Amino acid sequence: MVNKMDEALGIAGNCRHYAMCKIDFLGTGVCASGVERGYVSFYPEGRMDLYAALAKGKVHVTEKCVEIAQSCDLCGKCDYQCCFVTGLRPTRVMEALKSHVARHLAAGKPVAHADADPFLQSIRRIVGDEWATNDRAIAVTYSHDPSPLAVPAPPRYVIMPGTRQEISSLLKLLGSAGIPWVVRGNGTNLMGFELCEGAVIDLNRMKEIEFDEKNWSVRVGPGVAAFELQREAAQRGYRVNVAEPAALVCGTMMCAGIVSLFSTAYGSCADNYIDAEFVRTDGSFFSLNEKNAPNLFAFDRAGAVSPGVCSSLRVKLHPMTGDESGALVPFDLLEKAIDFSRDCAMRRIGLAIGILGPEYLSSFMSPTQRTAVEVKDALARKLGIACMVLVLGDRYAMASLREMGHPMIGQGLFTVLSLGLPSLGTADWLEFIAGLPEEEPFGYLKGGGFADLAEAALCPSAWRLVRDFDPDLRPVYEEIYSRPDLTDLVWLNMFRITSSRIGRQKQFLPFLMYLPLDHTLIDDVCAGLGSTALRYALKNNLGFITPVDGGKRCVLEYDYFFDQNDGDEIDRVRQAAAEAGAIIDRLSARTGTIRWVKYIFQQGYCRKENLLYA
Amino acid sequence: MRQRDARVFALTGATGFLGSHLMDALIRKGRSLVILGRRRKGMSLADRVAALLAWFDVKDRGALVETAEVDLLEPRLGLERHQYDVLCGKVSEIIHCASDTRFSERTRREATETNVHALPGIIGLAKDSGARYFHYVSTAYVSGPGPAPEAPIVSRTFSNVYEETKAEAERQVAARCSLQATPFTIVRPSIVYGDSVTGRSNRFNALYYHVKALQLIRDIYLNDISQHGGRKSREIDIHLDPEGILHLPLRIFLARRGHVNLIPVDYFVAVMLSVLESPRSGRIYHITSDAPRTTEELAAYCERFLRIRGIETLYGEGQNGGVQNPPEEIFNKLVRPYLPYLSDTRSFDRTNTNGLAAGFSAPDLTYDVFERCMRYAVRMDWGNGNGKSDAGVSRASG
Question: Is the entire prediction scored with pTM above 0.90?
């Protein structure tokens, strides 16, 4: 029993708060109680936090706690979802939570009632009894964030409004009582900005998606996640430029203006939307298309305060053609990859471009961490790949890439490699072929021979790919990996369902910034952030680089990794992050061209040009 | 302080294939050596040399070997004045073996630095030390197309950067040594493989590279057949015959009929020792085989050794056989840089070499020799560091 408890606590403590359990990204379903009750507390993520708090004695068994535990039917869907991205098995925590509560009740121990609170009654008159609570079991699941920068803060109230009007009334009420509030996204934002001791407003109920195809737009409510919107758009033959799959579209827009590899073609910030409706902090309304609306198109380099709550966003729809495909172009030097990606962006070749390092690629491609380590070694050491440039585009873009003459991994070879990963680590032939004394690095990728030889050598199969998982998960994963989507570069980058694997081994702290697509400056940034991380003995990597605005600028992510349960490492990452921030600020002041996302928060609605050049 | 007449050889490239074998042979003859070289991958030159002495089983003669970490591109080889003076006081002859053997155009800068730009430093040492001889290890392939006399290079046509830089180096050796009145020799080995008697080698390039490639390709399809039903193999008519031999259709495309000139490293060493014993200044020596093998013969050796069948050599300019199967495509890509050496039509003059040791021809590359060398390579996992110990393989050579 002790071991099971320890195991459950270990799993719970490692929940990454990516909220992938709140979206049906695998098509295996979502926790039914979460969908029904709305609060994160009823999703696996919340139950993990709740169990950890109970086990550590930080919260009592309350009425909601009992409800949360008992509403889990141990269906196992969360295992499929969570294990896919993090390798964790949340069901073991769900079992532990249910046992904990069952033992508590069987022992006749008391169940704590939420404090009587007249103000809560006022809130409930706005949103309904069901959608506001001060129960500590709910509050604890909204109280922390694995980010080292977050300060845990159990909120007094958690509120889930269902309409714009309700948001307005709430803000008036909270404002009149002087109660601080914050709007929370689907999971967390890795910065701790979603924590507040007053009221946390969870917009998860506001999931309206209304297409206006003749105007190439879709109106989304603030509770709509990127994956949900992309899925609906794709079913109609469109694409939207959205962020991580579990991230809320409006929230991401507010935070960073939405960054994705598609930003190369679709732009960023105001490029992504047609209009947005807001509720001001005083409860009044405005939309950006009004002549007298606040000028959210401007950008202030010193940062800005929130204009209120975005209650709806009209997002641009982009057409998709039936001939889209992808390719990965390997490089032995980052400098060459930067030049190539800038060249593509300047020539408008491709819909989406991203420079990805071996850490990113291996994490995204590999179903398990063990495989990821082997794949990274194969890519970086055996093949000598410093990074790859991913380019998505139609057949004309792909033809242009071929004409440019770089060796590349096309969709066919990518599928072979993806499904043949288990054999990649032991592929001596790979290292040998990579050592071919050719004039051009990776020249062996030209022609079809390598792909075919790789297929013979790797014997790609979904069945073999999922052997690393626990036996009970294999049949479902085999079915999932047998779907063409799971190896389709376009689909994977539209839906980004594997991107959170970057935090599978350790939690990560990203540094995102806009800057010129210039290798000298990028080298300076990477060298500064890299050496700082090394001084604090932290794993670190360049994440990705995506050209924007025709290659004049790019978005760069650099990541620090840390164990979210290791106090010493958290201290170190905090110190390193402070120093890294100072480096970015210094470089920013020196060049005048770097825009750190820290200062973009709350300004994501601005014009890209104001952000990049003003 | 050693006596100058004790013949102390300064040797560069001693951590390479030819240089290391020469080092071994010289200290077995009781010669004193100063090994000039660099640290690599965090390993001091002394440690690298010590590892080689262990591999050659001559650690007990380590006292004959000194090392000096130098940079041939720097003035005074990168040494302090007094260190350089001490070095000059020791050295009586110089053997310059160090070389960048890469063919690729993209390594031109490195090849030029190592093969050409390093010469003034090392030849300067010959002058400053008053060396009795400067011996330069070149390559038989500097001579360009046509008959290859043991004479200074005339040709300006080269197959790759390696040949080009070695040719330039020969010119500079002759010019600089003549100018400073240092007697010199130039030796030109052809393609060198392991020891013909023991099969041992501490490098697995050139000939080994192609055999290893065929082995890896073979293993991919054997695995496909034995573990995965052979679907990919069937697509290109690869199959196992009843005797367990893999039918692997693989065409090698060559411009013309010719041969491959291969010599074992023990022969290279023997000729080099002869040159060192009785050098003639300005002489050039071809260390080549009188009985070069054809690609067909080598392919037959490979087939027999690897238990495969189906290698075919096709001739003709621009010949590529139309659609190539994947093993062909990859193998021919691999072979491409070596094509000039696989269908070589040159005949190497050996007048000077034969004058050194009359009747002393290179051992024939029979199947037995080939098999001995390849078995050793397989046992050593082609030098990947995963090989079994070579204990039991006799180190006695020649």
Answer: no
